[in-house]
Amino acid sequence: MLEIRDLHATVDGKAILNGLTLSIGDGEVHAIMGPNGAGKSTLSYVLAGRAGYEVTSGSVTLAGQDLLALDAHERAAAGLFLGLQYPVEIPGVSNLMFLRTALNAQRRMRGEAEASGAEFMKLIKAEAEAFGLSMDMLKRPVNVGFSGGEKKRNEMVQMAVLAPKMAVLDETDSGLDIDALRVVADGINRLRAPDRSTLLITHYQRLLDYVVPDRIHVLVAGRIVRSGGPELALELERDGYVDIAA
């Protein structure tokens, strides 16, 4: 699904990613862990095409398509979804308007029929209920007045409605209490499918108690220095990154 080969990237002229290579197969869930400043969020922004993040060499393909040749909105239409560590507020734009506009924009770019009002409402109601968001909340401006947990649930609703091929979730567990963490984790598991892959970026092992990844990778100084199974997260929780980063 996602193939990253020898990726180098800079931010404000400073090298952050230094030869990162990663392969995520169809239907797989991978997790990236690492110390602060390792390049985890930079990787997510590079994949999404955020301005100011310059790829100097390497390649990235999504389902065989050259991701780096696409603008940010084209990457979204190609099936990439980025879940932010700190979801932004959009005053004046309701969740319903935002999501229907985004869904139909992506469908148009793929040459698909737009969702009718009835089709969209059926879809959004089902997903909102699954993630514990009321219709009243969906009528409110995007994330405005939402708690941290509500913002993350809202983002999971967005992901469910857009149904991406590849979801990159940047510290989705950040700031969540245990109940919100379980709801978000249950949602990630519910959306697992043979044609959908997920990359979880996290500092902590606790999310991986609920979402068991196929592989875990340790990112240090812009490169993956070690990979392993779910047991690797427990080792990192116990021993930290000092020996690995040395």
Detail the topology: elements first, then pairings.
Elements: E1 2-11, E2 14-24, E3 29-33, H1 40-48, E4 53-62, E5 65-66, H2 72-78, E6 80-83, E7 90-94, H3 95-109, H4 117-130, H5 135-139, E8 141-142, H6 148-162, E9 166-170, H7 178-190, E10 197-201, E11 215-220, E12 223-228, H8 231-239, H9 242-245
Parallel strand pairs: 3-10, 3-11, 6-9, 9-10
Antiparallel strand pairs: 1-2, 1-4, 4-5, 7-8, 11-12
Helix pairs in contact: 2-3, 4-6, 6-7
Q: Care to describe what's here?
A:
With 246 residues, the chain is an alpha/beta fold. It has a single domain, classed as P-loop containing nucleotide triphosphate hydrolases (Rossmann fold), CATH 3.40.50. It is built from 9 helices and 12 strands. The chain has helices spanning 40-48, 72-78, 95-109, 117-130, 135-139, 148-162, 178-190, 231-239, 242-245; strands at residues 2-11, 14-24, 29-33, 53-62, 65-66, 80-83, 90-94, 141-142, 166-170, 197-201, 215-220, 223-228. Strands 6-9-10-3-11-12 form a 6-stranded mixed beta sheet, sandwiched between helices. Helix 4 (117-130) crosses helix 6 (148-162). The longest helix has 15 residues, at 95-109. It is globular. The model has no long low-confidence stretch (mean pLDDT 90).
